[in-house]
Amino acid sequence: MEPLHELLAITHRQTLEFFVVGLKEVSEADVDQRELFYNASVLAHYAQVSTQAAVDLPAPPHLGAVFDHFVWSDTLQGDPAMMEAAGAQCLLLAGFFEDQMRRRHNIRWYASLGAGFFNRAAAQQASDSKARLLGMLARHFEPWRQRHARLSRELRDQAYLLNRPRG
Questions:
Q1: SS3 of 167, please?
Q2: What is the pTM of this model?
């Protein structure tokens, strides 16, 4: 049973590295490294957070949930951390899960909404460095969304993701 546990037990760092490598493969060579690592961290985080998580902000099951949580209820508009989370969730669902979301949601509208969330988070951010990063993510939302979608399609097209352990 131990070898199976080792095969399936993945750390946050391994998950982050997986998405860094994947995003590098679908990105241009001159892509901003801070943006790349931020995007990889979004994918790694939501790969490890359930839609039913009680401790952390749960992964949204669909774009409608993002709308209900962050737009319909405007109580979180003044919270930069929540605006950043909303932008990240739009990026995840409109990007990585674009093919699944497209049937029920207007992807372009949610991309615009996500960029707006990052803009609001940047404007409210106390740290200048973090504000600049969030502002860049807002300006480059669409290219990153497309990279997420491309990575998702490439991963689905791969026959096997797990390598056999060497004994």
A1: coil
A2: 0.83
Q: Tokens for 54?
A: 């009680």
Kindly state whether residue 13 falls inside one of the protein's structural domains.
Answer: yes
Say which DSSP state 164 is in: P
The widest CA-to-CA distance across the chain, in whole angstroms, is: 55
Distances (CA, A) of 160 to 44, 98, 114, 154: 19, 22, 32, 12
Instruction: Provide, for the chain, the percentages of residues in helix, strand and coil under a 3-state DSSP scheme, each rounded to the nearest 5.
Output: 70, 0, 30
**Close Cβ partners of 120 (under 8 Å, ≥ 6 residues apart):** 77, 80, 83
Is 164 contained in some domain? Answer: no
Residue appearing with tokens 């791969």:
158
- The answer to whether residue 132 is domain-embedded is yes
Radius of gyration, CA atoms only, the chain: 17
Question: Could you report the per-residue pLDDT of 83-112, keeping only the tens digit for each?
Answer: 999 999 999 999 998 999 898 999 999 999
145 φ/ψ angles, rounded to the nearest 5 degrees: -60, -45
Alpha-carbon gap, residue 102 to 94, rounded angstroms? 8
Which pLDDT score is estimated for 6? 61
DSSP label of 165: P
Structural domain for 20, as ranges? 2-157
